[in-house]
Write a structure and sequence with these properties.
The complex is a heterodimer. By secondary structure, chain A is α/β, with parallel strands linked by helices. Chain A contains 13 helices and 15 strands. Chain A has two domains: about 170 residues, 2-Layer Sandwich (VC0802-like); about 210 residues, Rossmann fold, CATH 3.40.50. Chain A starts with a strand and ends with a strand. Chain B folds into two domains: about 130 residues, Aspartate Aminotransferase, domain 1; about 240 residues, Aspartate Aminotransferase, domain 2 (3-Layer(aba) Sandwich). Chain B is globular.
């Protein structure tokens, strides 16, 4: 019965003169989300609103699912467009709409009429009352509640017809991807980093990703798992350029030359350096990590400070203050959790010390790194240059 | 050089099997149940394959049932006989090192009210016939023990098991999971007292998705699937003509010059074991002599995680498995190794090398050379 969807957006509305940039981006993302689905949708912008109209039969769940993955969408309202045949006909059309949409009639409601077509006779107030009355008469189990209705029936009188809608499916919110710059996500196989990428992408940032591969210590399957995770995040963020960096030699060099309890923190410093180089090469303005204070030894505030010291780009850590369960909840919601818990080891855990440092001192770490002086620059350069690119 | 030593997971198909499959998909693509010529041709292919298999077991054609492979054969053997014979009793005996397709069938039956006894194994992976004798009860209806273990190559005392059953209660059925044994041994179910024998095509250089279950004509068994009456209603569904054709061709080839094939596999096995014994910190699981199956070597490389060594070998073109490929998608350790009493260090560092018809001595030497080169480095880098 629904032929169209009204796509509501919230934050874009306040962007002043740049507003059209945000709207056009959102329009294009909605268009991309729908173009591979059945329904031959046309996406249009009409007086500050975005509509998707179906030109052929479509799968309702598939379409709402696709629309609620688009960042910038505050809500999706499936709507029924009826012909304007006068007010008496409208009463029938409204009753018919309620009949079709709500099999169970025990609810409270309110009618909200908007007369975009000001030529339409009568006042909105009067129309609300009249339409409410006919609904009450037809469905005696319903009640009116003007403050907290279960169902808010919107009746929009437009020049070309009347829109009826009452269902509101919440969208992800945020801003259209690509309207807020570009950043490089350090993607491991864990639960946190895909969530971090999702959260930053949601703010309109185009993301790329880097994964550190350490064969033979990490397997092809661990790499595939990261590709899968990037694909899952890309459902929201759009295509992700994934850089796969071979990290084995650097890791073994650290193992050979540095104190074992500092291995992880030194390793992470080099990862940040490589990520930053790749980021700069691709015009990213920031880095993203899934770090969360205190989760592991390398994520104490001391450790984060020492890791952060190697970068000059800002590092975004959107889950920094989250408890693990909060992160898991988001991972479950966005669908990355199942993949994240596949049991393949990543390179952060393979050589981990029993008692890694939790309060590293920058000077001491720098001193340890001096043991690598002769070889490390060449190795970092090679790691960046030989990074393999996988589009996800 | 490439060395594929994971033949117990799956094998490369014989040219003859590939040709037979292609022929059955191109020229002879009919439905074996159709009345016209195309159907008759397809039916003939199936008959020939059945005959080939029956011949290899010295069994009757009607005792061979085509299935989708080892898992279905094992499921049908265990569940199909249990359900058909439950009025005689609801007790089943199996070993503690069975393949998941037997083990999980048992778990299913337990939920249906059957009682299952799991026999322990010794350090070489063998069950004891004395344990079996003690486990047999009035209401025992089925004994299911694998012929060759897939993880360490232990060969179970099949004939002693059937003799024991005959002594105690001849009505008890004996199922042998022969997936790792068929094609390696000359199996004679009637003489050896095996009532049901499972086998799989892709372990013997045939195609995947096809296998068979030998069912002695006296066995009462229920089908798992219900449909259009193909294979006398025991396994309905349009016959997998290409699969059967490929399986038949593979059986024909593997049982041609069979003694020489087995000898060649033992040659590879012994060459690898001799080489491994020269490397420090290597432990062979199970027995090293010819009481074990010819195609499997299970070895622990102390001080290296099996996953890591597996991937390091992979980078050199050498393909092996850690534990059994069927269960390697799941975390945790091998059931067989635990059952033979292997400690944590062995469990964490064991690899399985399994040979097939295409392997050569040069490949074994290559693998040994690479192992000698890789191990010191891998042993140096480990969690402290």
């Amino acid at each position: 019965m629904f032929q169209s969807f009204l796509i509501k957006y919230a934050e874009i509305g306040i962007k002043g003169k740049n507003r059209y940039l945000f709207e056009d981006a959102l329009l294009s993302h909605v268009h991309h989300a729908l173009k591979r689905l059945d329904g031959q949708f046309t996406v249009t912008k009409e007086s500050g609103r975005i509509y998707a109209h179906a030109g052929a039969p479509f799968d309702y769940d598939e379409v709402t699912e696709a629309l609620t993955c688009v960042f910038g969408v505050a809500a999706v309202c499936p709507l029924k467009r009826v012909e304007d045949l006068g007010f008496e006909a409208l009463k029938k059309q409204v009753v018919e709409y309620m009949e079709e949409t709500y099999p169970d009639k025990t609810f409270t409601f309110k009618v909200n009429t908007r007369r975009v077509n000001k030529q339409y006779p009568g006042s909105s107030e009067q129309m609300n009352r009249d339409l409410g009355e006919v609904i009450l008469e037809t469905f005696p189990q319903t009640r009116v509640d003007v403050h907290h209705p279960d169902v808010l029936l919107n009746v929009e009188i437009r020049p070309k017809g009347v829109n009826l809608y009452s269902r509101v499916i919440p969208g992800p919110g945020g801003m259209p991807v690509g309207t807020n710059g570009r950043a490089m996500l350090l993607l491991s196989g864990g639960i946190d980093s895909p969530v971090a990428g999702y959260m930053i992408a949601k703010r309109g940032v185009k993301i790329e990703a880097v994964y550190f591969h350490a064969p033979p210590y990490t397997s092809e399957r661990a790499r595939q798992k990261v590709v899968d995770l990037a694909r899952e995040v890309s459902r929201y963020s759009g295509p992700i350029k994934l850089h796969v960096v071979n990290f084995t030699d650097i890791q073994l060099a650290i193992y050979d030359k540095c104190p074992h309890e500092e291995l992880t923190i030194i390793m992470r410093r080099y990862m940040m350096r490589i990520a930053e180089e790749l980021a700069v090469k691709d015009n990213c303005q920031g880095l993203i990590t899934g770090e969360s204070i205190g989760q592991v030894a390398s994520q104490t505030v001391h450790s984060l400070a020492v890791t952060n010291e190697v970068c000059s780009l800002p590092v975004f850590r959107p889950v920094i203050g989250f408890d693990k369960q909060d992160i898991v909840d988001i991972a479950l919601k966005i669908g990355t959790y199942e993949t994240s818990i596949e049991p393949y080891e990543d390179c952060c855990t393979i050589f981990v010390a029993k008692h890694p440092v939790t309060k590293p001192v920058l000077e001491k770490i720098r001193k340890s790194e001096r043991n690598l002086e002769e070889q490390i620059e060449g190795m970092l350069k090679e790691a960046v240059e030989t990074a393999e690119i996988v589009w996800c | 050089m490439e060395a594929y030593f994971d033949n117990s997971a799956t094998t490369q198909v014989f040219d003859s099997a590939r040709e037979a499959v292609i022929r059955a998909m191109t020229a002879d693509y009919g439905n074996a149940a159709a009345r016209h010529m195309k159907g008759v041709e397809a039916e003939r292919i199936i008959k020939e394959a059945r005959k080939e298999i029956a011949g290899s077991l010295k069994a009757q054609d009607k005792e061979i049932l085509f299935t989708s492979g080892g898992t279905e054969s094992n499921n049908m053997a265990v569940i199909g006989t249990a359900l058909a014979n439950q009025r005689a009793g609801k007790h089943i005996i199996t070993s503690s090192i069975e393949h998941p397709s037997v083990y999980n069938s048992m778990a299913f039956l337990e939920k249906q009210g059957f009682e299952v006894t799991y026999l322990p194994v010794d350090s070489c992976g063998h069950i004891s016939v004395r344990d079996l004798e003690e486990a047999i009860r009035e209401d025992t209806i089925l004994v299911s023990v694998m012929y060759v273990n897939n993880e360490i190559g232990a060969v179970e005392p099949v004939e002693e098991i059937s003799a024991c059953i005959r002594r105690k209660n001849p009505a008890i059925l004996f199922h042998a999971d022969g997936v790792q044994a068929y094609g390696k041994y000359e199996i004679r179910p009637k003489r050896q007292g095996i009532d049901l024998l499972s086998a799989s095509g892709h372990k013997i250089h045939g195609p995947k998705g096809v296998g068979f279950l030998y069912i002695n004509e006296r066995v009462k068994i229920l089908p798992l699937l219900y449909g259009g009456g193909q294979q006398k209603g025991m396994r309905p569904g349009t016959e997998n003509v290409p699969g059967c054709a490929g399986l038949g061709a593979a059986v024909k080839e593997i049982y041609t010059d069979h003694a020489a094939r087995t000898e060649a596999l033992y040659g590879l096995r012994e060459r690898l074991i001799a080489g491994l014994e020269q490397i420090e910190g290597v432990v062979i699981n199970g027995s090293v002599d010819r009481s074990s199956a010819p195609q499997i070597v299970s070895a622990a490389f102390k001080g290296v995680r099996s996953e890591v060594l597996l991937h390091a070998l992979e980078a050199k073109g050498i393909y092996v498995s850690s534990g059994s490929a069927c269960s390697s998608n799941h975390p945790g350790h091998s059931g067989t190794l635990k059952a033979i009493g292997a400690d944590r260090e062995i469990l964490d560092s064991t690899l399985r090398f399994s040979f097939g018809a295409f392997n050569t001595e040069a490949e074994v030497d290559y693998a040994l050379g690479e192992l000698r080169e890789l191990l010191p480095g891998l042993r140096r880098y480990r969690a402290k």
